[in-house]
Amino acid sequence: MPEYKLPSDSELSERFIKGKTDSEIAAEFGTTRQAVSYQRNKLGFQVRPFVTRANDIISRVWKVQVLPDSQPGSHHQTSLSQSLRVWLRLQLGDPSLSARQRQAAINFETRLREQHVVLVYDPDGGFDLVPREPTDGDSVIRWPDQRPRDPEAVKYLSLPGAPTV
């Protein structure tokens, strides 16, 4: 059985901060990607922090249906769900957004503004856009009646005063 050398916490942190992938770090130290990933997770480093943050904000409002890749019908992969997620990443300042993702986020916001709609989620039916009501205010979503409004989620799920460009 091969002997693996794991990087120290400081070595791993240094390389991860510089943008090296788990696979690159593993190759450098002669270990497995999984071992590096495990150690990185123990240190609290997230591979995609803005995606994780966007998902956290959404989960404060809805428990979105997520099914294994082999099963159709997973709500988190619908176009409206992905549009919301990429729009949130833009609002959070994600520097890793591609030009295409940035434009998709802007298009999503433009659609909400021009069509005067908000995003709703039904666990049985998925995501949909519905006409904006006065109680929606500047929210991107229609907040579920039964959920308390989480202040941080409200902050990030509100349309900015001026359209994002």
Structure explained in plain terms:
The chain has helices spanning 9-17, 22-29, 33-43, 49-59, 79-92, 99-115, 151-156, and strands at residues 117-122, 126-131. With 165 residues, it is mainly α. Strands 1-2 form a two-stranded antiparallel ribbon. A hairpin with a 3-residue loop joins strand 1 (117-122) and strand 2. The protein starts with 8 loop residues before the first helix and ends in a 9-residue tail after the last helix. The model has no long low-confidence stretch (mean pLDDT 84).
Key words describing this protein structure:
46% helix, 7 helices, mainly alpha, elongated, 165 residues, two-stranded antiparallel ribbon
- Spatial order of the strands in the main sheet? 1-2
N-to-C terminal Cα separation, in Å? 55 Å
What is the CA-atom radius of gyration, in angstroms?
19 Å
Low-confidence stretches: none
Proportion of residues in helical segments: 40-55%
Summed over residues and divided by their number, the pLDDT gives a mean of 84
- Structural class assignment: mainly alpha
Shape: elongated
Nutshell version of this structure?
This protein is mostly helical. It has helices at 9-17, 22-29, 33-43, 49-59, 79-92, 99-115, 151-156; strands at 117-122, 126-131.
Topology (elements, then pairings):
Elements: H1 9-17, H2 22-29, H3 33-43, H4 49-59, H5 79-92, H6 99-115, E1 117-122, E2 126-131, H7 151-156
Antiparallel strand pairs: 1-2
Helix pairs in contact: 1-3, 2-3, 4-5, 5-6
